[in-house]
Amino acid sequence: MKFSDFINSDAICAELKAQTKQEIIEELVQSLLDSGQIQADQRDDIVTSIMKREELGSTGIGRGVAVPHTKHPSVENLVGTVGVSETGVDFDSLDGERVQLFFLLISPPERPGDHLRALENISRQLRDETFCRFLKQSRSSGDIEQLLKEADDSQFVS
Amino acid sequence: MSTESITATVTVLNPQGLHARPADLIVRLANQFQCQVEIGKEGEWVDAKSILSLLTLGAAQGTELGLQATGPDAADAVAAMKTLFTEGFNELGEPIDA
Questions:
Q1: What distance in Å separates the CA atoms of residue A57 and residue A79, rounded to the nearest whole number?
Q2: Does B63 touch chain A (CB under 8 A)?
Q3: Interface pTM, i.e. ipTM
Q4: d(CA B78, CA A53)
């Protein structure tokens, strides 16, 4: 699976303003709403269910990266977006580091395989420290889109 | 001085596969042991003490994974890890909001 299979380029948030976990998730979900990926009346429920998942254990997986996610019956396909916070946010990460890079995923409940493959792709690409650093340094959605595209094109290298 | 190395095969049993939360559980468990613990699939071995590495396995339900621990408490680590897999990361038999 490639980034282009689940990251909607119109929903990329190059400069997240949020300063808390709740706000970060709201901002990312809002961008999916603004880009037409989710339904307006589902927004609050999606945010709540992502926060509930965080309560089970932070999705801050280290290296300044978090993958907040949930299953939700209102989506037919895996939808996701990327956000970058210049200052980083306290996300209760497993390594205690502030999180700068967010991959938010919403998947249909009956498709656990797609969610796994998206996580696999994200984690494989982020093992490349240069890619990870460039993403965190991105200040425009165009830059992020370009980086994701380059990662997609060279995915067989890793 | 010999360094003990223990291997085993485990299977991912839970319907959601080895997603972020099971990966977290594996890392927390592996970190309780001094030994090096590796998990592998199709010739690719990753550090069981790194979530990012575990997620690269993309291991779905039914996937068989190799387990290898090297170090003084390797036997205990493998036994504990096998139990975690056998219990399906506590996700068997109940719908879990992943």
A1: 22
A2: no
A3: 0.84
A4: 29
